[in-house]
Each structure stands twice: as C-alpha cells, then as structure tokens.
Design goal:
This protein is mostly helical and about 150 residues long. The chain has one domain. It is built from 4 helices and no strands. Helix 1 packs antiparallel against helix 2 and helix 2 packs antiparallel against helix 3.
Length: about 150
C-alpha cells in the first residue's frame, strides 16, 4: 500500500488517529471519575502530542534544527484549539448533549482552524514571526547618519 499523497490527506489521517486517541483517553478519564472539563483538557493534550509527532515526521515532513520552534508553535496552535474546543464543549453540554458526543463534535469544529494554523505557521518552512519586523533604518535627512 502506497503512502497517501499530499499534506491535507496525511493531516486528516493523523487527525483521525488523534481523534481516536483523544476520545479513548477522554472516555478512560471520565470512567476514572475525572470532571469532564479536566478530562477534555488532558485528552486534548495527549492527542496534541500524538499529532505533533506524526505531523512533524510524516504529514509536513519537517526535520532538522527547527524542532524546538515547531514544538512551541504547534503547542500554541494546540492551546488555541483547546480553548475553542472547551467553548464548544461547554456550549454543547449546556444544550444537553452527552459529554462524549459533545467532545466528538467540539473536536470536529476545531479541526479546520488547527489544519490552517499548523500548515501555514507551526510547520511552515519559514514561519512568519508573531511580532512586527524591525523598521528600516533610514538616514537622518540633515546629518546623513543612520
């Protein structure tokens, strides 16, 4: 069997594995008696680690010296995704959805943002910095000094 072509398909497959990891971890934590919000946060973190490792090595095929930077950017994307996930989860539970169904839906709702942010920033070959670029140094009109 040939490997799937293109980062989007690979991202979807990694996401599907992360989805399974997330829900399995979430269900196990709920069964252990953990509050659903804490279980969601922990299960999302476990899935984020799974996804980072697979996305780095297989989806976007990035290797080399940028590991720490990619890890930090991917962690930030995951944190933002987790925040959105929690908002959706709370809203769905408040609307009387079961905890497991609400988490499953919340993950699906957050996935488009996660792909775009990972593709364009976290795993980009040359990611744009979050801060403004330094302004150009211009010579003073009277002295000519910079």
């Amino acid at each position: 069997m040939r490997a799937p072509r293109g980062p989007f398909l690979r991202f979807c497959l990694v996401g599907a594995s992360g989805y399974g990891v997330n829900l399995a971890t979430y269900a196990a934590l709920l069964a252990a008696g953990l509050h659903y919000a804490a279980a969601a946060a922990l299960s999302f973190l476990v899935a984020a680690v799974n996804n980072f490792l697979w996305n780095r090595s297989w989806t976007f095929r990035t290797r080399g010296d940028r590991w720490l930077g990619q890890c930090g950017r991917a962690l930030l994307v995951s944190a933002l995704s987790l925040g959105a996930n929690q908002v959706f989860l709370f809203a769905l539970v408040a609307a009387d959805a079961s905890h497991l169904a609400a988490q499953a839906a919340a993950i699906m709702l957050v996935t488009p943002f996660s792909f775009v942010a990972n593709r364009l920033w976290a795993f980009a070959a040359d990611p744009a910095p979050l801060r403004e670029s330094p302004s150009r140094v211009v010579a003073h009109p009277e002295t000519g000094r910079r």
